[in-house]
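Objective 1b. Sequence-to-structure analysis of Snakin-2.
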Amino acid sequence: MSLSKLLVASLLASVLLFHLVDAAQPAYTQPQGSLLQHIDCNGACSGRCRLSSRPHLCHRACGTCCRRCNCVPPGTAGNQKVCPCYASLTTHGGKRKCP
């Protein structure tokens, strides 16, 4: 009788331990050798914001958009069609977020 209780308790403890180990692992891991390459946001945004009248504000907004979309349109202005995600981000006021 006590042997069965010990067996049930150890089985329950092992299931709980496996559950805790499984919960500690991240839900999504990027596979090694992924085809998606991340761009250099600092370099791309430096080029995008080099002629801006407010370069620090431009670089901060561009960096946020670049990290979310992994894309920055070429040139210092316009070309929004090249990166649809970049062009679609807006502020709370409904204005375009990305320079």
